[in-house]
Amino acid sequence: MRSVPIRVDEITESGYLSEEAGQTTRFSPYDLVHRDAAAHGRDTHRVHPFGSPTGAPGEPAAYGAPGAYVPPTTGAYPPPRTVRPGNGFILPPSPPPAPLTPEVHDAVEQHLYHNYNLLRKNLSGRPQYTSYDRRFSQVVGRTFGRIIRTTLVLILAVVLLIAGFGVGMIYGYVRSTEPIPANLMTSGVETSLVYDSEGNLLSRQTGTMNIDRQNIAYADIADTYVAKAFIAIEDERFYDHIGIDPKRIASALVSAVINSGSPTHGGSTIVQQTIKLITGNDRRSSQRKVQEWYRAIMLNEQLSKNTIMEYYLNLVPMGNNFVGIETAAQGYFGKHAKDLTLPECALLAGIPRAPSFFNPKTEVGRRNALRRQRIVLGKMAQLGMITKKEYDDAMNTDLEFVFDSMLTAGTHINSYFVEYALKEVVRDLEAAGVSRVMARQMVSSGGLKIYTTMEPTVQRSIDTVFGDVRNFARRPERYFDAPEQPEGGMVIINNETGAIAGIGGGVGPKRANLVLSRGTDIARQPGSSIKPLAVYGPALELGLMTGASMLLDDESRLDPDNPDKIWPTNSYTNPPYLGLLNVRFALKVSANVPAVKTMATVGVETGKYYLYRLGIDRRKDQVQLALAMGSPQRGMSPLEMAAGYATFPSNGLFRKPYSYTKVEDRKGRVILEKDPQPTQVFKPSTAYMMTSILEEAVRGVHAFWAYGSCVAYGPVKNAAGQTIPTAAKTGTTQDKMDKWLCAYTPYYTGAVWLGFDNRIKRTPVHEENEDQTKHVWFQVMNRVHADLEPKEFVRPPNIVEVKICAESGQLPGPDCPEWGIYPEHFPEDSPLLPHEICHVHNELAPTPTLPTEVTDPTSSAQPTGTPTAHPTGTPSATPTKRPTAQPTPTPTPKPTKTPGKPTP
């Protein structure tokens, strides 16, 4: 209900008077309040606020006095006696008052007097309006004001929150700031030295990219303009600030705002730039900047400004691979830094801002550098570092550049081996708790001495062969216009120590630092070269078979995803399958079907487990039976393959390959040292049996109807022509994309890869170059073994040699052809030792029943069953014997004449 304004003509002590048409109406304040309350539906049975209706001063309240009980009445309020719209109204008489005590009366009078004054004050000023009577503009204004106040409060809260977060973040950054290692602070500009295994100096490391650098002491240039020029243009308050310059930082921010994000100068001081040059950390992040500020303040407290300036002048990049003022002075002007003139100092001081833009070697860069030189000279004159006459003379002096010396300066190219050794040292420093940035800086310019395992003879042999592209492409002209040239990689490991002896990272000379090394960095599918590591090695180790075990090479459907598809197939096509053959022959001809069947029996997870123990972690690879054919999702590098194969000539011991023996700091203290602990992956008997099988690769027709894949190139021979035992396994991936040869002698193990860098555009190895991996491997190894004496593989004492028939895997009988009898090796306690006479060539032998199915592949990490075709003794592939045809075992017969060669 909307309240109606009341016309009031006069205010008296006893109430209000309203005059209209000669009639005067008196009503008390209570009547007014009571009427308004009733109009709004409020409780009207309250204490009378202003005294009696008669209005007599000091008279007790006639109605509803304070403290008196007023009985409720019926209805909201009795109707008025007279109502005159627009002229006020007349209130009805009040009910009889209740008697009041004197104390209550006095209290009511005091309260009424206060309310009376308050009411009089309100009625004497501007007219009062209820919220319903305010103008729209007033309501909107008040609402808008509330919104502004609320918004300001929220903004303040957000600002405080962000400020608190920022303070906490800065505190966290400062707390996590690592101090600069002492060796960098005392030798931050010292060269690290790299040595080979014989103590010969291999390389000097002078920075991340091994850029040429010559150091100079501050005392040598103290009397020149060198330091003044750099201070004038880079940090004019260098000698006054605490390591950071808040004024310069603020100026740089303002400049960035004015110039749309492109400041005319930076905010970093020379101290901050020195920190960045020492640590090598130039990431764009708030954390790096805060930590740089903190380090600059700390460095400013630890070192004198002249010492900091010396660090800076020796580390500052000067373009064209020059680092430091001394190298730049010789590279650009052919003189020492101490002999530079004022114009020359000013030009060099302007280069570090943008070395490529102010490059004096190019015509455009030289003009830019000269303009920058004038800015530097003007700044020096402005700061009072030079006189007006010196400024004028320098501005009018023509510079004479000497660029001939640049031909002998620049970057030193590290070998593939040195680069790998440096990476390994960085990884080991990280493992010891040093940050990656610090570790790289220590290695590149921390004054370290790194003693590598590189054997000069081995590395020279690799470099010689890899330096001639004809060793990788018989007809290089075929690739003259090709988008890609054939590439290769090789790693050789010392079998005795497990150390890396040499690395070949690419064909031809190495032309830059930090490039791809095909010996250590690539990951390519190994093809059949994985079979000894993941298939037959574990099968021999678990006692599931020997070299004499018979396997069936036939048309099979072993793909669980395509059960109707004939898979796998063999690389040879005539005949497509060889039928029953033993493990030795199956591995010699690289038959795929027997390998997949063996993988199914051994278990894919078991194969992955053995790879893991050999340093090739593919436990998360999703490959299944295709692992037996060398098709994991992630391939291997020559380094990984060489390390895995080195286990066989090392009596089954695996040593993680390493490229250095120890690292010393500038004071000669050993900070890193290699002490490789070997792991027994295969038993010595397993390793020897595998070696014996892999030696077939370099043999001709020897009890089998095939030549070894490497017979035309091996075995390895020394300079005197003496034969050194060699075991090898080739590998070829689908479509001949990658070619491998992994082989070893009693001295060294090496793995060679041949292919193309581009894996997206599939380029196959040309047919006439398919054997180049063998050519390269034997070319290198013949050089490596030139001065070595013949040496046999170590034969464990528990290995026994038994002559068997190649076509049955059993003991030879009198009717077995002499050319098919060969010696096989077995553990003396093996239950798979043959005890039965060959059933193929002997008259009483039964007809064999060949297996036609293979056990389903398992995912267990342990073998889950016996192989499809078992060795002689307990073979499922052995024919069922008729009781009357059981011959009595006889001693192994010896051939009486030279074996003949059958027609292939």
**Helix content percent band:** 25-40%
CATH superfamily of the largest domain: DD-peptidase/beta-lactamase superfamily
Arithmetic mean of pLDDT: 80
In CATH, the topology of the largest domain is named: Beta-lactamase
CATH class identity of the largest domain: Alpha Beta
Task: Please give the alpha-carbon distance between the first and last residues.
Answer: 119 Å
The proportion of residues in beta strands is 5-15%
CATH architecture title of the largest domain? 3-Layer(aba) Sandwich
The 3D shape can be described as: flat
Whole-number tally of structural domains = 3
Most strands sheet = 5 strands, mixed
Poorly predicted ranges: 1-21, 42-91, 405-409, 845-904
Major β-sheet strand ordering: 7-6-8-14-15
Structural class: alpha+beta
Rounded to the nearest angstrom, the radius of gyration is 49 Å
Please give the number of β-strands.
23
The number of helical runs is: 24
Description:
33% of the residues lie in helices and 11% in strands. The strands form 8 sheets. A 5-stranded mixed β-sheet has the order 7-6-8-14-15. Strands 10-9-21-20-19 form a 5-stranded antiparallel β-sheet, sandwiched between helices. Strands 1-2-3 form a 3-stranded antiparallel β-sheet. The termini are far apart. The protein contains 24 helices and 23 strands. It has 3 domains: 115 residues, no CATH class; 197 residues, Orthogonal Bundle (Penicillin binding protein transpeptidase fold), CATH 1.10.3810; 418 residues, DD-peptidase/beta-lactamase superfamily (Beta-lactamase), CATH 3.40.710. A hairpin with a 2-residue loop joins strand 2 and strand 3. The protein has 904 residues and is an alpha+beta fold.
